[in-house]
Amino acid sequence: MIASALNRLVHWRYVFPVTLFLVLRLWFSLWASSTAVLLPIQNESSKFYYGMTPLSGFDGILWGPWQRWDTIWYTKIAEQGYSANDLSTAFFPLYPLLIRVTATLLSINSVAAGLIISSLAALGSFTWLYRLTQEQYGEAMARRALLGLAIFPTAFFLFAAYTESLFLFLTLGCWWFAQKRKWEFAGLMGGLAALTRPQGMLIALPLAFIFLDQFRHRQVTLLRAANLFSVVGGGSLFVFYVFQIDRSLTAWFEFEGLWRESTLPWQPIWQSLVTILTSGDFAIAFVNLLDLGLTCLFLGLTIWAVTRKQFAEAMYLAIILLPPLFTIARFNAYLPLASISRFLVVAFPGFVLLARTNLPKSIFVGLAGLSIVIQTLLVILFAHWVFVG
Fold first, then answer.
1. Phi and psi dihedrals of 180, rounded to 5?
2. Closest Cα partner for 190 from 167, 209, 214, 165?
3. Neighbours of 158 (CB within 10 A)
């Protein structure tokens, strides 16, 4: 069975996604480690480790540049569990659980375990997106869609010890099985996605569009819709667990509210624009401009999906894009749209739609080059403890 799986992996149709994955894994690692060596970290960054020990020595060069921001929360949960006395319960449990298991089995540090999990999930995501697009639109379109994802400015988060790659892998798997009318597996993958990120529970909405279309064409029975409840149930299990810690039905929402506050959708957009024009700080203006530009791009793609009557794809894009627009970050007053450019890296229908625009080759190459430069700059900033998502 293992030999058969390896043979399929190296089959010609997987060469492009596997090669692209290996190139990016090496590229990001080189820039992150070089940054760690050439740009020493300032002492004030120690407060962001939240009691975790910074990696040092060889580990500090190889894994240390990725021990940043949310990674620290996930590794802290993996090593110490959840606590009602900090903000840990804002982070869903599947990823830190996998980190703990991997670190224990391989006898490695938690950051390295997280990077291994994310890398494997990124490889799986590349392969699944490639196959999904190839089956619908052909080889050329599959390459363009996957390349669009790979050069996306924040695609390096798929290789960091963050949940993006795991969530993308699970949602792509969910989508794949739903289209194949294997709803038991779609429900399982969706339930795991709901244990990975808060938006996971909302995947039930685009899945419902896919199911209703299949039901309308008499391809599935109504009883199989019960599998959709697995998606909602996955996230509900964690909310119930938080209730056991805090004894409050609204505990998770209260903890999440400490990170972000509710607002009207145009407020973070307007504040981001004002910050770009008035901050006077290049890094702040740059990240705000990136957040705002990508937000507008994916809003346009969502509307375009609706006009093309791709309602499931439009709904998926909406559940990734819209929730951040109705909140504003409390933890960083300079980034009203904080993290939205990172969230969008899992919005896979957008990359398929972008591939279908059929831009002239010269324009595509120019945009790809610019995106790679931005991507590399973000990796350097991230490794140097600058919040970029």
1. -85, 0
2. 167
3. 30
Amino acid at 327: T
* Dist CA 335 CA 71 (whole Å): 19
Six token digits for residue 309:
């009557």
Cα(222)–Cα(210) distance, rounded to whole angstroms?
13
Segments of the chain scoring below 50 in pLDDT: 6, 9-10
Question: Do β-strands 260-262 and 327-329 pair in parallel, antiparallel, or remain unpaired?
Answer: antiparallel
Taking residue 374's Cβ as centre, other Cβ atoms within 10 Å add up to 17
**Is 259 in contact with 90 (CB distance < 8 Å)?**
yes
CA torsion sign, 28 to 331 to 48 to 104? negative
132 within 8 A of 312, measured Cβ to Cβ: no
Q: Please name the residues in contact with 155: beta carbons below 8 A apart, sequence gap of 6 or more.
A: 24, 149, 345, 375
pLDDT score recorded for residue 53: 87
Reading the block at residue 229, the tokens are: 């409840």
Other C-beta atoms lying within 10 Å of the C-beta of residue 167: 29
CB 268 within 8 A of CB 106: no
DSSP H helical segments within the chain, as ranges?
Answer: 2-9, 15-38, 57-62, 70-80, 94-106, 110-137, 139-150, 164-179, 183-194, 204-216, 228-246, 251-259, 266-278, 282-307, 311-325, 340-343, 348-355, 361-383
Alpha-carbon torsion (152, 158, 164, 168), positive or negative = positive
* Cβ contacts of 76 within 8 Å, gap of 6 or more: 50, 51, 52, 88
Three-class secondary structure of residue 357 per DSSP: coil
The DSSP line for 64-100 is GGG--THHHHHHHHHHH---TTSSGGGS-SHHHHHHH
| Side-chain-side CA neighbours of residue 81 (13 Å) | 5
Gap between the Cα atoms of 146 and 131, Å rounded: 10
Three-state SS at 329: strand
Measured CA to CA, the distance from residue 338 to residue 315 in angstroms comes to 22
Q: How far apart are CA 173 and CA 360, in angstroms?
A: 32
Q: If residue 261 lies in a helix (H) or strand (E), which one and from where to where?
A: strand 260-262
Burial of 152 (0-12, 13-18, 19+ CB in 10 A): buried
